[in-house]
Specification:
Blueprint (H helix, E strand, L loop, with lengths): L2 H9 L4 E2 H12 L7 H13 L3 E8 L2 E9 L1 H13 L9 H7 L6 H28 L5 H35 L6
Helix pairs in contact: 1-3, 6-7
């Protein structure tokens, strides 16, 4: 999925401004889809040119006028076709895992720091997902499932971090060749 698909998906749930789409991505989609804030407005402009969304300007007291986007019927059909044609492939990209792949080149203090930071990030993500699932009363069954999926994944990763972090530095030390010291 790309930024345009994320925008169409969010707009399929209701009208939203670019800022509201950004917040939805951060709060609801961030555990399984990533996009940059700078890519949202160009995507919305392109979707508007293609007739998949339209917008109206809404005045705000003491703030700039905002554009509120609406999914058109053509956009709804396009999004449905995208959903029907998309394969459920998992794409996992992780700077943490890349760093750990080469942990034998890092000092033990850095490895410990990386493990601690990753544990903190996983816990923060787990807290966010749990808060969303607890606070949102209007989740669809599919939304609820995605949150449960994210919670289960983060819990499993946290268990791995807790069981492996203590011995990992020692294992890496033992596996280091004299050339990498």
């Amino acid at each position: 999925m790309n930024t345009s698909h994320l925008c169409l998906g969010i707009l399929s749930l209701g009208d939203a401004s670019g800022y509201e789409i950004k917040k939805a991505i951060e709060q609801t989609f961030s555990h399984f889809q990533a996009t940059s804030y700078g890519s949202i407005y160009p995507a919305l402009a392109k979707l508007s040119e293609q007739g998949l969304v339209r917008y109206h300007e809404q005045a705000q007291p003491k703030r700039p006028t905002k554009k509120v986007f609406t999914l058109t019927d053509t956009g709804r059909k396009h999004f449905f076709q995208t959903l029907m044609a998309t394969e459920p492939a998992e794409q996992h990209r992780s700077d943490f895992l890349f760093l750990m792949m080469f942990a034998h080149l890092l000092p033990n203090e850095q490895i410990t720091l990386l493990l601690d930071k990753q544990t903190g990030l996983l816990q923060a993500e787990l807290n966010l997902l749990t808060r969303i699932i607890d606070e949102r009363e209007t989740l669809t069954p599919g939304m609820h499932f995605t949150l449960e999926y994210g919670i289960a994944a983060n819990q499993a990763l946290l268990r791995l971090m807790q069981t492996r972090a203590a011995s990992l530095s020692q294992e890496i030390d033992a596996a280091r060749s004299p050339k990498t010291l």
